[in-house]
From TrEMBL:
Residue ranges with Acidic residues bias: 653-668, 704-713
An example Gene Ontology CC term for this record: nucleus
Record-annotated Serine/threonine-protein phosphatase 4 regulatory subunit 3-like central domain positions: 143-626
Subcellular location: Nucleus
Domain of life according to the entry: Eukaryota
Comp. bias regions, Polar residues: 775-794
Keyword annotations from UniProtKB, A to Z: Nucleus
Residue ranges constituting the PP4R3 EVH1-like domain according to the UniProt record: 13-112
Gene3D superfamilies in alphabetical order: Leucine-rich Repeat Variant, Pleckstrin-homology domain (PH domain)/Phosphotyrosine-binding domain (PTB)
Organism for this UniProt entry: Salvia divinorum
Name of this chain's protein: Serine/threonine-protein phosphatase 4 regulatory subunit 3-like isoform X2
Record field: compositional bias (Basic and acidic residues): 741-750, 805-816, 828-838
Region listing for Disordered, in residue ranges: 653-853
Principal location listed in the UniProt entry: nucleus
Length: 853
C-alpha cells in the first residue's frame, strides 16, 4: 500500500518559494521542484521543495488538517506555518501543477479529518452512540462534532435528529437564552449546528425547520455567523417584507405556503448562498416548486377568488395603482402556473380566458403607462409559449383588435426591446398550423396592418435622402413622420421576410400592390449596415420563390439598382454586406434564373466589371454568356428540325396519295408526264445557280424513263444558257416542277398539316401530277369558297369521309378544265411564291418555253 500511495506523488512541479519577512515583503527563497511525500520516520505527509541546482531542501512542511491553506488565482498556494509562525507561499510555473498539489492537499485533509473522528470514542456512531447528547450549553461542542460528522454517516445522524422530537424545540430555547445573555460563543456554536443540519440535505428535516413554528428562530440562528458581520434577517422579514393581497385570500394553507416559499428562497439566495452545494440548492428549489403548485391549485379551485379578481379589474373607476397591482398579480399567477402539470396548466389558462383575461390585456395595452404595457406583454408571451391556439382563437374571434394593438406597439419605441416581444408574438400567430384560424389571422394582418409596416419603411426615405431630393416629393409628405428606431426597422424587415417564406400566395398581390419591395429597399440608403443587409436578405427571400411574375416585376421597376449601388459603394471591403450581395448573385447563377441573370449583366455590368476578379462576379458573367449561346443554338436547331420534319411528312403523303389515286387521275398524270419528258429536265438548280448535293426525290419526274440517267450527266454549255437567259428574259429560271403550286395548293398543304387530322391531299396531288398549276383567277373559279378562304374545316357530325368526297370532286373538276400545256403559271407568280424548285432544262428550246407559258 505504501508504494502505491507514493508513486503518484513523485511527480515534480517547478515552483518558487517565498517567505514573508518582518517588513511585510516576500523574500525569494529559491526555485525548485515540489513533491508530496511521507516524512522520515513518520506516517504523516508533507510538502518537499528540492532546489533545482544543488538538490538541497528549500522547504519541508508537514501538511496540517487545519484550514490554513489558501489558493490565490491559479498559480499560488499560501499558508501560515503554525510551527514556525511564518507566512509561506509557493508560486507555480504552470497552473496544472498548482491544481494538482492543491487537490492533493485537500484530499489529505479530508482523510485526516475522518481518521481523527473515527479515533474518538464519542464519535463511534454506528457502534456506541444511540442518541444525541442533551441539548445544553455545555454539550453544544459534542453536538457540533456529531452534526459535522454527518458527511461520513449522513443517514445515521439524520435518524438521530429526527428520533429526538424535542431536539429543535430545546435548541431554539437555548438560542433565545444565549441571545438574551449575549453569549456570543454559544450563538456561534448554535450557528454552526444549524448550518450543519441544513447541509445534511434531508427533506424531512427541511419540512420541520421551515415550518411556521421554527422558521423565524432558524433565521435568527443564522444571523450569528462567526466569519461575517451581524445581519438582522428577522427584522428584514418582519418589517420590510410586505405581503400584499390583491383579493383577500381566505385559505390559511395558501397563506402559509406563500410565506414559506418566500423564506426558503431568502435563505437560499441571501443567507447561505456560498455554503450550499448543488444538491441542497436543488432540494430547496423542489420545495419552492411544490409550494407554488399547491398555491396555484388551491387558488384556481376557489371560484369566488377568481371572480372577485376579474370583477375588481373591470371596475370603471379603478385607479392606475390598483390596476397595476392586479396585472402584476395576474402575471405572477400565470408564471407560477408552470409548476402545474401540463393538463392542469391548460385547464387553468382556458378558465382565465373564459373569465376575460384577454379583454383585460387589450385594455392594458391601450394604457399610456409603460410598466403596465410591459406587464401585459409578459402575460401574452406566457400564453403564447404555453398554448398558442388559445391566443390565436381569441385573435381570430375578435377580428384582430388585439392584433392591431400588438402591431402598434411593435412599431413604438418603449425601450427595453419590448418591440422584440411583440415581433415574436406576431410571428408565432402568423406561423400557426394550417386551418381556419390561421387563414383568418393572415387575412386580417394583410388587409388591415400591412400598410402600417409599409409606412414605417417609407419613413426611411426621408431620413436617408437629402432635402429637396426626388424621393421626398414622391412620398407625398412622409418626410414629416418621426423617425423609426433602427431596431424596429430591422424587426419589420425580418417579419416581411418571414411573410415571403410562409405566405407566398399573398406576396404577389399585397406586396406588389403596396410597392413593398421598393420601400424595403429604402433601407439600402441607411447608415446602419445591418439594415442594408436586412433589405438584401428580403430580396434574397423573394428571389428564392423563383416566381417569374415577381422577377418580371423586379426587372420592370429596376429594383436591383439600390442593391448594386450599395455593393459598389461598399467597394472592396470584405464584410457582411459584401457577402450578402455575392450570395444573392451565386443563387441567381446556380438556379439559372435567366430573367434576373440577363437583367443583372445587361443593366449593371458597367458597374460590376471592376469586381470581375471576384469568383462570383466572374461566374455570373460566364453563366450569362453560356445562356446566350444556348438560346441561339436552340432556336436555330429547332427551326431546322421543324422544316425538315414538315418537308419529309409532305413528301411521304404526296407519294402515298399518288399510288392511291383513281385511273382517270393516272391518265391525266401520264399525259402531263409525257409533256415534261419532252422537256428533259436536268438535276435541280437553285435560284443562285448552285446545284444541291442531294437532290430531293421530288425534283425528279413521277415516272422513271430510260433516258433519265443520260440527262443527269448532262451539263449545258455556258453560252447557250446565257443566251437563253438573255433572249427569253429569265425563262431559264422558270420552275417546271409540281411543287410550284398556286395559292390554293399552298392552302391545301397547310390544311394537310393541321392538328385536326384532315387529309384532303388528293386535291393537290392530282393537280400536281397533271401539271395543272392554274393561275390565281382559275383557282378562284374552280376551288370552292371554303378552300379559297383557308377554312377547309371538317364537320364533326359528318366525319372525314364526306370531307374527302368533296375534295375528290374538286380535283376532278380542275383536271377536266385544264390541259397539259396550261399546267404552268407565269414566271412572276412562281417567283412570288419563293419556291426553290428545278428550272427548265437547258435543252428546251425557246419555243417550248413560250408554248409552255
Amino acid at each position: 500500500m505504501g508504494s502505491q500511495d507514493k508513486s503518484p506523488n513523485n511527480t515534480t512541479q517547478r515552483v518558487k518559494v517565498y517567505r514573508l519577512n518582518e517588513d511585510g515583503k516576500w523574500d525569494d527563497q529559491g526555485t525548485g521542484h515540489v513533491t508530496v511525500d511521507y516524512l522520515e520516520r513518520s506516517e504523516d505527509l508533507g510538502l518537499f521543495v528540492i532546489d533545482e541546482e544543488d538538490n538541497e531542501t528549500l522547504l519541508l512542511h508537514r501538511i496540517s488538517s487545519d484550514d490554513i491553506y489558501r489558493k490565490q488565482e491559479d498559480t499560488i498556494i499560501s499558508w501560515r506555518d503554525p510551527e514556525f509562525s511564518t507566512e509561506l507561499a509557493l508560486s507555480f510555473q504552470e497552473t496544472t501543477g498548482c491544481s494538482y498539489i492543491w487537490d492533493h492537499i485537500c484530499s489529505l485533509q479530508r482523510n485526516m479529518h475522518f481518521n481523527s473522528l473515527a479515533s474518538e470514542t464519542f464519535n463511534n456512531i454506528n457502534s456506541e452512540l444511540r442518541e444525541l447528547p442533551p441539548v445544553e450549553l455545555s454539550s453544544l461542542p459534542s453536538i457540533l462534532k456529531i452534526v459535522e460528522s454527518g458527511i461520513a454517516d449522513q443517514l445515521r445522524v439524520t435518524e438521530l435528529i429526527l428520533n429526538d422530537q424535542d431536539f429543535f424545540r430545546k435548541l431554539m430555547e437555548l438560542f433565545r437564552i444565549c441571545e438574551d445573555l449575549e453569549n456570543i460563543d454559544g450563538l456561534h456554536l448554535i450557528f454552526k449546528i444549524v448550518r450543519g443540519i441544513i447541509l445534511l440535505n434531508s427533506a424531512q428535516i427541511f419540512e420541520k425547520i421551515f415550518g411556521d413554528e421554527l422558521i423565524m428562530d432558524i433565521m435568527g440562528c443564522l444571523e450569528y455567523d462567526p466569519q461575517g458581520p451581524l445581519t438582522h434577517h428577522r427584522n428584514f422579514l418582519k418589517e420590510h417584507v410586505i405581503f400584499k393581497e390583491v383579493v383577500p385570500i381566505k385559505d390559511p394553507v395558501v397563506i402559509s405556503k406563500i410565506h414559506q416559499t418566500y423564506r426558503v428562497g431568502y435563505l437560499k439566495d441571501v443567507i447561505l448562498p456560498r455554503a450550499l452545494d448543488e444538491g441542497i440548492v436543488g432540494n430547496l428549489n423542489s420545495i419552492i416548486h411544490s409550494n407554488n403548485a399547491i398555491i396555484i391549485s388551491l387558488l384556481k379551485d376557489d371560484s369566488a377568488f377568481i371572480k372577485d379578481l376579474f370583477a375588481r379589474m373591470k371596475v370603471p373607476t379603478i385607479s392606475i395603482e390598483s390596476k397595476r397591482t392586479v396585472v402584476d398579480f395576474l402575471r405572477e399567477f400565470c408564471t407560477l402556473s408552470k409548476s402545474l402539470q401540463m393538463v392542469h396548466q391548460h385547464r387553468l389558462f382556458r378558465d382565465l380566458v373564459s373569465e376575460g383575461i384577454f379583454d383585460i390585456i387589450a385594455d392594458v395595452l391601450q394604457s399610456e403607462d409603460y410598466k403596465l404595457v410591459l406587464t401585459g406583454t409578459d402575460i401574452l408571451v406566457l400564453f403564447q409559449s404555453l398554448d398558442g391556439n388559445i391566443l390565436r382563437s381569441y385573435v381570430s374571434r375578435q377580428e384582430g383588435a388585439l392584433l392591431g394593438l400588438m402591431v402598434k406597439h411593435m412599431l413604438t419605441d418603449y425601450g427595453d426591446n419590448m418591440h422584440c416581444q411583440f415581433f415574436e408574438i406576431l410571428r408565432s400567430l402568423l406561423d400557426s398550423p394550417p386551418g381556419a384560424q390561421r387563414e383568418n389571422i393572415v387575412e386580417i394582418f394583410y388587409e388591415k396592418h400591412l400598410n402600417q409596416f409599409v409606412d414605417a419603411l417609407s419613413s426611411c426615405q426621408s431620413n436617408s435622402d437629402g432635402p429637396g431630393s426626388k424621393s421626398d416629393s414622391s412620398l407625398g409628405g412622409l418626410g414629416s413622420q418621426r423617425s423609426v428606431k433602427p431596431e424596429i426597422l430591422l424587426n419589420t424587415c425580418d417579419l416581411l421576410c418571414f411573410c415571403v417564406v410562409q405566405h407566398p400566395y399573398r406576396i404577389k398581390c399585397d406586396f406588389l400592390l403596396n410597392d413593398v419591395i421598393a420601400k424595403v429597399l429604402y433601407l439600402t440608403k441607411r447608415r446602419e449596415k445591418y439594415l442594408v443587409v436586412a433589405a438584401i436578405r428580403f430580396v434574397r427571400a423573394l428571389v428564392s420563390r423563383s416566381d417569374e411574375h415577381l422577377m418580371n416585376h423586379v426587372v420592370k421597376n429596376n429594383l436591383f439598382k439600390p442593391i448594386i449601388d450599395a455593393f459598389v459603394a461598399n467597394g472592396d471591403r470584405y464584410n457582411l454586406l459584401n457577402s450578402a450581395v455575392l450570395e444573392l448573385f451565386e443563387y441567381i447563377r446556380k438556379e439559372n434564373l435567366k430573367i434576373l441573370l440577363r437583367y443583372l449583366v445587361d443593366t449593371f455590368w458597367d458597374q460590376l466589371a471592376k469586381f470581375e476578379t471576384l469568383s462570383s462576379i466572374h461566374a455570373l458573367k460566364v453563366k450569362y454568356e453560356q445562356s446566350l449561346e444556348n438560346v441561339g443554338t436552340t432556336s436555330t436547331g429547332t427551326l431546322l428540325d421543324q422544316r425538315k420534319r414538315l418537308d419529309e411528312r409532305a413528301l411521304e403523303k404526296e407519294e402515298e396519295d399518288y399510288f392511291n389515286e383513281d385511273s382517270d387521275e393516272e391518265d391525266s398524270a401520264s399525259a402531263h408526264s409525257a409533256g415534261i419528258k419532252r422537256g428533259k429536265p436536268q438535276p435541280p438548280i437553285l435560284v443562285n445557280g448552285s446545284a444541291p448535293e442531294n437532290p430531293s426525290p421530288r425534283s425528279g419526274g413521277l415516272v422513271d424513263y430510260d433516258d433519265d440517267e443520260d440527262d443527269e450527266d448532262y451539263r449545258p454549255p455556258p453560252k447557250k444558257t446565257t443566251g437563253s437567259s438573255d433572249e427569253d428574259g429569265g425563262l431559264a429560271e422558270f420552275p417546271l416542277k409540281r411543287k410550284l403550286v398556286p395559292k390554293e395548293d399552298s392552302e391545301a398543304k397547310r390544311l394537310q398539316l393541321s392538328p385536326k387530322g384532315l387529309k384532303p391531299r388528293a386535291v393537290f396531288c392530282s393537280t400536281l401530277k397533271d401539271g395543272g398549276l392554274s393561275s390565281k383567277k382559275q383557282a378562284t373559279e374552280n376551288v370552292p369558297p371554303s378552300v379559297n378562304q383557308n377554312s377547309i374545316t371538317p364537320n364533326p357530325e359528318k366525319g372525314l369521309s364526306e370531307t374527302a368526297e368533296v375534295a375528290k370532286h374538286t380535283v376532278k373538276d380542275e383536271v377536266s378544265s385544264k390541259s397539259c400545256n396550261d399546267g404552268l403559271d407565269d414566271t412572276t407568280d412562281t417567283r412570288s411564291l419563293g419556291d426553290e424548285r428545278p428550272l427548265l432544262s437547258p435543252k428546251s428550246s425557246p419555243e417550248m418555253a413560250v408554248k409552255g407559258s
